[in-house]
Amino acid sequence: MTETRDGSSTRGCKHQPPAITPSLDRGALAEVQTLLVDWFGREGRDLPWRRTRDPWRILVAEVMLQQIQVARAIPFWEAFVDRFPTPLALAEAQLSAAIRVWGGLGRYRRVVDLHRTARILVADHAGLVPDDPVVLRSLPGIGPYSAGAIACFAFERDVSFVDTNIRRVLHRLFVAADVPASNVTAKEIAAIAAVAVPVGKGWSWNQALMDLGATVCTARKPKCDRCPVSASCITRPTIAAALASTAAAQRKSSQRLANPYEGTNRYYRGRVLEQL
Fold first, then answer.
1. CB-CB contact of 93 with 84 (8 Å)
2. What CATH number does domain 54-155 carry, 1.10.287.3510, 1.10.340.30, 3.10.450.50, 3.40.50.300?
3. Which of 11, 104, 175, 265 has a 20 to 30 A CA-CA distance from 42?
4. What is the rounded CA–CA span in Å between residue 223 and residue 237?
């Protein structure tokens, strides 16, 4: 997972906000929310940090998952929270011990920040992880995304946050198809994300957005036929046309590779000789 930064306009021109689809009206949004949350209940990934609401374990997961693939992080997370199950356990340990358990995950600045965070939690928060995203952001290595994720996944607060996958899904669902993603600022996407969170279901909703972006609504080859909200997706016709065009180009390229001389004089000479 990646911490996001606000975008800005270019060439000194005032940025115009994107045209937001009417799918954000209350009725249509409620349908999308229901379909996506139900889909997550059936198809959501079974990840170890989703089986707990322990704030410390979830905080460790969010720190590890910054720009690290999920599958790679799992064994390191399991080893780390087994060795340091509480902020106090990590705070009392030497940094060198934490680094050894962190092992080959790399990005050692994060374990340094995590060790500092544990000591701050013990000193200033009675050894507990706070549930306020604003307070969480004051901790070393915790940015806007991680703060929101911890508040949501540990405390089930109905808060929004945006990573690469969530941004892609929200843009495709709720922003006009003719508005490129590069023209939509982080602040605009954050505004959509905040409106879209269903009351009382923020945990499932945000997990669903991440899983949809990671497994179905992918960047290069989205699987629209498997998407539970494809009927509501304003971008689906554009994606379908792009995929069809790519497939046609690939078929044409394969045909050229199979017979590179087709259409040339050499090709027609060969056809004549076949008749002789």
1. yes
2. 1.10.340.30
3. 175
4. 13
Q: Do the Cβ atoms of 238 and 245 come closer than 8 Å?
A: no
| CB distance 51 to 207 below 8 Å | no
For the beta carbon of residue 128, count every other beta carbon within 10 angstroms. 13
Is the pLDDT at 243 greater than 70? The verdict is no
157 close to 131: Cβ distance less than 8 angstroms: yes
User: Residue 256: which pLDDT band, with cuts at 50, 70 and 90?
Assistant: low
User: Which residues are annotated as catalytic?
Assistant: 62
Round to whole Å and give the CA distance between 182 and 237: 19
Q: What is the pLDDT of residue 242?
A: 62
pLDDT in the model for residue 125: 98
| Segment among 33-42, 236-245, 249-258 with least mean pLDDT | 249-258
Segment 68-74 shows an average pLDDT of 95
Structure tokens at 251: 């078929």
